[in-house]
Amino acid sequence: MSLLSSSASHRSLTPLVSLARGAASTPAPDFSRLPGARAPKTPAATTPRSLRIPTAKAARTALTHCVELVKKHDKASYLATLLMPSTAQPHIFALLAANVEIALTRDKVSSVSTTAMYRLKFWRDAFAAIYKGDGLVPQQPVATALVAFARSSSVDLLDQLASCRQRTIGDRPFQTMNEVYSYGRDSTGSLLRLQAHALRRAAGMDADASTTASDAVIDRLAEAHAALTLVRSAGPFTLRRVVLLPAELLVGEGLTPDNVVSGKNPEKLAAAVQRLTEMGAKRLQEARDARSSVPRAERAALWATAAQCEHVVKVARAARYDIRSQLLQRPRPLLAWRLLGWRLTGGY
């Protein structure tokens, strides 16, 4: 069966979707049967408000929407999730779809300021409604999927996915590499932790357990991803006269944002991009060197991000650190086989 077959993935998820709700006549579905579910820490009577559980049809429709959304906008994560345990897939597809919705804020609104802030607030309010009982859950497919399949996720990490992007609205460049790394830990790092949580539950492990060592690996990989994403996106952003490359790297080479947009001093720009690329490559290697500290069941959470980082490092070097090179925009060939190899070897 081809790894690229989305219909196959939908069939494998069908039995799990049916668990999103008990029989139609059951007034209070038993969520202990859901993959990754756990008993609530407080009695149901003391919770702020009980959620309206989606019907089986609504849950299936929402999950299908999530799968297609991830497939369209995050192909690496889509393929990686197909290789994860089937019991974790609905949970993770719901999380990935929420991340896509948040990440696409810039492209879905005409303004990158006020309108974008309101859209991100919509998601923060949705997370509060789902996980804290604060307000009403919006009638939106990704929100429905979170209710049906990801009720055990950390609301703090989900909220951080949105709040960290609020801080970057307005196309403001990063001033230092520490700012880049902090953004990576809050954005990519939060998503990786959410996936690791889901994978621990699917493996029958303590879902809330994590080690300082494995957290450090996630931080290094998230920092690498933040740095290397700037490398890959720098060229397209210059077409919009936007420069997000860290100011400290540009100043170190005697460059200004105008130099980057105009293409002047290409040798100095290439030197700055090389420094950024190698910083990302170093953190990727540090994450890989500490592989033994990450339980094998959790390593699947790192596959997609590691594959993306590895690809950018390779093509940036091949392009001689030219941000306008089309090599940086091409998808990674044989990605599915790389992910399959890691599944068999326990790597990332």
From TrEMBL:
<protein>
    <recommendedName>
        <fullName>15-cis-phytoene synthase</fullName>
        <ecNumber>2.5.1.32</ecNumber>
    </recommendedName>
</protein>
<dbReference type="GO" id="GO:0016117">
    <property type="term" value="P:carotenoid biosynthetic process"/>
</dbReference>
<dbReference type="Pfam" id="PF00494">
    <property type="entry name" value="SQS_PSY"/>
</dbReference>
<dbReference type="InterPro" id="IPR008949">
    <property type="entry name" value="Isoprenoid_synthase_dom_sf"/>
</dbReference>
<feature type="region of interest" description="Disordered">
    <location>
        <begin position="26"/>
        <end position="48"/>
    </location>
</feature>
<feature type="compositionally biased region" description="Low complexity">
    <location>
        <begin position="39"/>
        <end position="48"/>
    </location>
</feature>
<keyword id="KW-0125">Carotenoid biosynthesis</keyword>
<dbReference type="InterPro" id="IPR002060">
    <property type="entry name" value="Squ/phyt_synthse"/>
</dbReference>
